[in-house]
Write a structure and sequence with these properties.
Distance between the termini: 45 Å
Helix content: 40-55%
Radius of gyration: 19 Å
CATH topology: Spore Coat Polysaccharide Biosynthesis Protein SpsA, Chain A
CATH architecture: Alpha-Beta Complex
Largest sheet: 4 strands, parallel
Number of domains: 1
Order of helices and strands: EHEHEHEEHEEHHEHHHH
Strand content: 15-25%
Strand order of the largest sheet: 3-2-1-4
């Protein structure tokens, strides 16, 4: 029987976790497909571990708890991936609520393509559980957040994105694709966003080329509020965002990109400069490509 492996890194989300996990279990699956949940808990508080222990009684769950906090989502996802046995691997976060037809919409689209195609949905930022708007059709893709120097798409960091095309790792992605990588995900500490983008870049370098298809009505809801958005001091979080961006650029594009970082940070953190750069640099680049 084919199987979906959903892997998750968890830390101190006890107040959300029961609803998040139940939404995944309630998500309709293709006929004949099984599911397993692999969760690595990064030494959470008692509330969170209490919720996880209840789900651990379900045979579909494999849950391990780190003896100490490692502070790295990529490291925990790597650990979970090694335990996954499914045909399709889907990464998710502990603050992402699945709409009931998320799996089915991705699966139906995947049947139109070969196994080298990755089918992704979107996520919508919301403030509370139950605040679930329908997709508007107006999507912000990674392609709207292009690093003006390297041409590589990146997450915005100001929380302004509303409807966002999700990372390829949370799509319908066959494990054979991941097995072609030297490592599942590079370990970026504290803030895992660079790890996801780095993984996307490595996958796009594989041969044969991997096609990415977006299903705009396959939706997860990101519970994005002050408590849910950051489980640590915001300044500390943003500090590591900057450090990891530097590591990403140096690792993938060398020192030239690294030294251009000041312009890059203006682009991703300040709307005023992003609008200027978008209008005067990115849009002309796109027009030239056409």
């Amino acid at each position: 029987m084919p199987k979906i492996s959903v892997i998750m890194a968890s830390y101190n989300r006890g107040y959300l976790l029961k609803d998040i996990l139940q939404s995944i279990l309630d998500c309709k699956r293709p006929k004949g497909w099984d599911i397993e949940m692999i969760i690595v808990d990064d030494h959470s508080n008692k509330e969170t571990w209490g919720v996880l222990k209840e789900f651990k009684k379900d045979s579909r769950f494999t849950i391990v708890r780190n003896k100490k906090n490692v502070g790295s989502a990529p490291q925990n996802w790597n650990k979970a991936f090694k335990m996954a046995t499914g045909d399709v691997i889907l990464i998710t976060a502990d603050d992402m609520f699945f709409s009931p037809n998320y799996f089915m919409k991705l699966y139906k689209e995947s049947k139109k393509h070969d196994k080298y195609t990755i089918v992704v949905g979107i996520f919508i930022n919301v403030k509370e559980l139950g605040d679930f708007p329908k997709p508007s059709g107006k999507l912000r893709s990674y392609d709207e957040w292009i690093h003006p120097l390297t041409g590589i798409p990146y997450h915005p960091t100001d929380g302004s994105n509303e409807h966002v095309v999700t990372t390829i790792t949370t799509g319908w992605c066959y494990r054979e694709i991941y097995e072609g990588l030297d490592e599942f995900m590079y370990d970026y500490p504290v803030n895992g966003m660079s790890g996801e983008t780095d993984q996307r870049l490595q996958i796009q370098k594989l041969s044969p080329p991997r096609k990415i298809v977006v299903v705009p009505d396959a939706v997860r809801y990101h519970i994005h509020n002050k408590v849910g958005g950051y489980r640590m001091d915001v300044k500390y979080y943003k500090k590591w965002t900057r450090i990891n961006h530097r590591t990403f650029l140096r690792r993938n594009f060398g020192w030239k990109a690294y030294y251009m970082i000041p312009l890059y940070h203006l682009f991703i953190t300040q709307k005023f400069f992003r609008d200027i750069i978008g209008k005067n640099i990115i849009e002309p680049m796109r027009e030239k490509k056409k």
